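Worked example 2:
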Amino acid sequence: MPDFTQLIPELKQWDTDVESWIAAVGRFDHAIAYGQIFWPEFRIHDDCVLFVDCPSAAFDNWMLSTDGDRTAVEATLNHRHILDLFTNSQFEATREVVLHLGRLLRDMSSCKLARDFPGRAIVVSFDEEFREDLVDYQITVYQER
């Protein structure tokens, strides 16, 4: 069990647990929006699994520049940097926070993809190796071929 007081410093001020804190300050609209991050929608396009909002033009351009390497195209178009999810956050993320969130995103996306595309060998990677710059931590989705 993670130490949520380390991951959510505001908990110390409230002197409470995560669920009580969410009950006090959480918002339904934010929960719905976070759902898009934690349980993303994917689609099949030209035998590739892509985020539902991936533009077809970007796919076509990457197919040309990778000589049709679908795995490389998926990995390029289906990567999300953890820090980019919260570019205007007033909370400065620590490595522990980024790693915890990255693991959550990896695990939830893996479950979602296995449910939605049971016949495909889809990899959701999150490299936890030490990175000097926290922006380098990312989730990447691609198919093993």
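The mean pLDDT is 95. The radius of gyration is 17 Å.
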